[in-house]
Design goal:
Helix content is 44%, strand content 14%. It is α/β, with parallel strands linked by helices.
Length: 479
Amino acid sequence: MRLVQEVHAQIRSLERFVPLLGQAAVDEARTLARGLSEQLAGGVIWNVNSTAVGGGVAEMLHSLLGYARGAGLDVRWLTIGGSPDFFRITKRLHHALHGERGDGSPLDEAAHEVYASNLCRNAVELRELVRPGDVVLLHDPQPAGLAPTLLAAGARVLWRCHIGADETNEDVERGWHFLARYLDGVRTMIFSRETYVPARYRDGRASIIQPSIDAFSAKNIDLDEHTVRSILVHVGILEGPPPPSPRYAFVRSDDTPGRVERSADIIRLGRASAWETPLVVQVSRWDPLKDMIGVLRGFSTMVHNHAAPEVDLVLAGPNVRAVADDPEGPAVFEAVYRAFLEQPPAIRAHVHLAMLPTADVEENAVIVNALQRHAAIVVQKSLHEGFGLTVTEAMWKARPVIASAVGGIQDQIEDGVSGVLLRDPNDLDTFAGELHRVLVDRAFAERIGAAARERVRERFLGVRHLIQYGEIFGRLIAA
């Protein structure tokens, strides 16, 4: 079985952005794409990461590559494979670049041997596809070690780091030291925040691009109340029976009809939530840095300490057996489940742990869409966050968002204007108080929700993102 797999990116038209951003912005993107295509002279832009499902990088690639292809560029997407030990090491690197210890394993020469030997096998397959002069954009630590081989083969290589820490510590330094032998020869790097750039690469090679969302993807398309309710009843989050509904629940990226067929795996003490019950929702990977346990305990604190209307909590993430590059998922879900069991029955009756189906990427996306749109509050109480795509998604849906003031989230939300920032994500009393405030002050919730949508329209949609990438690619090719 081949380690390297190609992921199909459905062609998408930039014209759909005209009503949101105006014709001039779309024309600028098209003009840039034409010029870049001429510079490439038949070359290909390859994107390489470790998974096509689960997490923000995969979501962005599905959309951005679709629009780039629609603009006439030959862009393609490859995923790499590896052993369980390889993904354990890359997860350790993921934590290290966030400033965390993860499993605490040493990033030593034995780790280098596992990391490099796995990537060597991938490189053999990549060399069959990548030609001299092609552009290769490597995403995050998993494929970073491919850079020397690809550079030696004549490819133009960039590295895109979607994660980082605002402050350095021993683990951050350890992570960058591990990657340095593979990345020091890469002359173009892209980060989400200036503070994420390590000192050794503050030599002119780093550019900053903030991530974006696709307003027209299944994750973010407008859904009417009837469709939202039908989807959430079908997957088991809301109690049913489902209302009469059209045969197809949503439109796929290729403009064909789609329908939610699968259900979620849900752990709860009592019944599914009623349609009328407000939901506090966090959607993320089952990753310790997302602090699902802290959300659960903060919700419990709110119920105990504040008089509030009846409210339910939904903690939702991908099915833990479905994300190949995240070996921690099952263990983290188990830890969240144990924290759930620690709560008294009166709390557990209002908590729902949902593993969402991921076999169909767009089906999963539209389920998340419906859940976010139905939420009274969307939470992202991360301990570290490169950039919170779930935050931007909820803001686009005009939901009031409560999120930690960490990483890129600080660039997304204006505290008290387009959301609520938690200065200390470990302060559960403050978190509980903010949950209560937003639940009971509906005028405030609606005001910050409306401001959030406008902020996303102005700053975090995909056309801006594509233009920035195109400018960087153009400079690299011309150098």
